[in-house]
Amino acid sequence: MNVPMRIIFTCFLLLFLSIRGLSQSSLPTVSIPAIKFYPNPAITQITFDFPRDLEENCTFEIYNFLGKKVYELKNITQKATVELSQFYRGIYIFQLRDKTGRIIQSGRFQVAK
Description:
- The protein has one helix and seven strands, in the order H-E-E-E-E-E-E-E.
- By secondary structure, it is α+β, with helices and mostly antiparallel strands.
- It has two domains: 1-30; 36-111, Immunoglobulins (Immunoglobulin-like, Sandwich), CATH 2.60.40.
- Strand 3 (59-64) and strand 4 (69-74) form a beta hairpin.
- The chain starts with a helix and ends with a strand.
- Mean pLDDT is 83; it is low at 20-27.
- It holds the Pfam family Por_Secre_tail.
- This is Secretion system C-terminal sorting domain-containing protein.
- InterPro entries: Secre_tail.
- Residues 38-104 form the Secretion system C-terminal sorting domain.
């Protein structure tokens, strides 16, 4: 690599690392234990275990892979079991939202029939 290319590469790398560091350090961090869910893949039902210290008025939503909401649960308790008889085979996305609608956690699971 010649000298001008090496200088450009070094400047680009430093710029990338400084921007990345600033963007990550400016974001507030919320540490919530992960949602546990089982079995995965699921056939007839799936169970979600929510953290004990979850704030009130959270909403749990499940979306199919096309982005259509197929399930919603408000006022979450410690555990929720979702019957999958109306779910097609495939990948589903779940989201846990706070009372303002901000996504706290998300994940995915598979329905295998």
